[in-house]
Specification:
alpha/beta
Length: 187
C-alpha cells in the first residue's frame, strides 16, 4: 500500500523488522536480499527496514529513474526514494515495453510498466511480502492485489508477456512454476 495509516506505521514497521530479522537469523542468513520498487509507503518502509538491518537491497524500478521520480508528488517520498536508491546494492531499471517510445515518459504508459514490474516481482521473488489489507475492489493493474493474483494464478496477460523484453522468448506462460510463499502483514 502507498497510503498506510499514520497511526499504524510503528506497528507495521515493527512487524516488518521482526520478520526480516527472523528470516535473516534463522532461515537465509547472508543469502537474504530484499527486492523493492521503492514506491512511497510500504515499499519504502520495507526497503528502509532492510537497509537498517544490513540486508542487501535490490532496487527494481518499473521505468527509467527520472520518469519514476516524476510520478512521486510528495517531496518526502522523493527524498526517501533517492536515499534508498543510493543505498541499494543493486539498482535496476526495467526496460520499456517493446511497444513504447524509449525517449518519452508518457503517463499513459505507467500502468503497463507497473504491470510489467508486478509480473517481474511475482516471478522472481522467492518469498513475496505483502503489506496489504486484503481488499480487492477495483484491482488496478500492477497494484498489490494484482501482483498477488499473478503470484497465485500465473500470468493472466498474454499481451504483457509478449510485449516485454523481460519475458520474450521465455517460453509459454503456461510453464510458470508454482507460486512460492506469500507472507502478508495486514495494513
Amino acid at each position: 500500500h502507498c497510503d498506510i495509516a499514520e497511526s499504524a506505521i510503528g506497528a507495521i514497521r515493527a512487524s516488518v523488522e521482526a520478520l526480516l530479522r527472523r528470516l535473516k537469523e534463522h532461515e537465509f542468513k547472508n543469502a537474504l536480499h530484499v527486492m523493492s520498487a521503492l514506491a512511497p509507503g510500504a515499499d519504502q518502509l520495507v526497503a528502509q527496514a532492510a537497509v537498517d538491518a544490513s540486508i542487501p537491497l535490490i532496487a527494481v524500478l518499473p521505468m527509467k529513474y527520472n520518469c519514476y521520480l516524476d510520478t512521486m508528488t510528495h517531496t518526502k517520498d522523493r527524498e526517501q526514494f533517492m536515499k534508498l536508491w543510493e543505498a541499494a546494492n543493486l539498482q535496476l531499471e526495467l526496460p520499456d515495453r517493446l511497444d513504447f517510445d524509449p525517449n518519452e515518459c508518457p503517463r499513459e504508459n505507467e500502468t503497463k510498466q507497473y504491470e510489467q514490474l508486478g509480473l517481474f516481482l511475482a516471478k522472481r521473488s522467492h518469498i513475496l511480502l505483502a503489506l496489504w489489507d486484503g481488499n480487492q475492489p477495483n484491482v488496478p493493474n500492477g497494484g498489490t492485489a494484482d501482483v498477488l493474483n499473478m503470484r497465485f494464478d500465473g500470468i493472466r496477460s498474454v499481451e504483457l508477456h509478449e510485449r516485454s523484453s523481460l519475458f520474450v522468448g521465455s517460453g509459454s506462460y503456461l510453464d510458470t512454476p508454482p507460486a512460492e510463499p506469500v507472507l502478508q502483514i495486514v495494513t
